[in-house]
Amino acid sequence: MVSTELVEAMLNEDETRFQNGISELLSLSRMDDVPALALLELGYFLLLRGLAAMAIPYLEQAAALSPRNRDIWTLKCLGHVRLGQRQQAIDSMAVAVDIESFPEDINLLEALQAGEASIESQAASVLFHPSLSLFDDSSEANFHNRIYRFALHQIERTDSNNVEIISELAKCYYRLNELERAEGYAKRALASKPCCSECLTLLGLIETNRKRDKDAIEYYRQAVECDGQALLARINLASAIQSEGGWSESRSLLEKALQLVQNKEEKGALNESEREWACIGLDLLASNVGVSEHDVVRELALREQALEVGCSKTPAFIANFALCLFFNAKFERFLRYTSYRHKLAFLECLEFQRE
């Protein structure tokens, strides 16, 4: 894979190998049936090297071939920012947000529209944002980590005092499971921006990983106090409190979180990451009402809603729903959600229940 070779070349500072990889992508770009992915990769690596003027034409060509690819438009936005072409940057990011609205993209679009001056560092974060799907098909197990490490190296050299970038560095190191470095960057960001909900949530996640539940709960509480719309913090707080038996408080937090999800859904502003958290929130709330209120009917309705929201591909959610069907005596439906190897055992239970 060309992109794998290019990352290896950059990590090892092998200029010859890097130029060979770029040459290969340039050769692909001249083919009559050039794939959009090759053009996207070429634009990406040219941007990483600071060659925005060279990258833009290839990204425009990619956009013509694949106009609904969000990655192309976000990278194109960065290229225009670096060339001082604000209106073109706004137009590109507006298309990206229309395709799929990530909070980071919306914030960048608003900053561009407001005429904010120093936005290049903010725009550069698109190069290593987890939503970038450019490398999803890599066969290298650690390829995403290599991309992160190179991007971190690049960003750390450019603007080490920018709060937004420090916050992004914290999140990236968390994804790399380097918790101490992630914690250090998150606390640095908080020193400049004490009410940074994302950093407080990240510190909560770090403490959760360390099995320090009380410290995690405190960070999640602070994050929710700073930003009432903080969905990730609210659901993590509810989960932590629920695991300690705080059913009533957890239920209140989850119901508020799901109301936030519904509001976003109605506005068409719910992204895929938030949809995943909505699944988790619904599953937690279903467990809550099933255990604390013994309301199996509402539990079933909530688990069914979770599948409708987008949990239908997650085995754990399907298993929870199947069990709920069983305990509600919905036996025929239950069997449709049960794997073949479990069917015979459950059929025996079904016959016993019918007797």
Automatic annotation (TrEMBL):
Listed InterPro entries: TPR-like_helical_dom_sf, TPR_rpt
Pfam family for this entry, one: TPR_16
Annotated protein name in UniProt: Tetratricopeptide repeat-containing protein
Organism (species): Thiocapsa roseopersicina
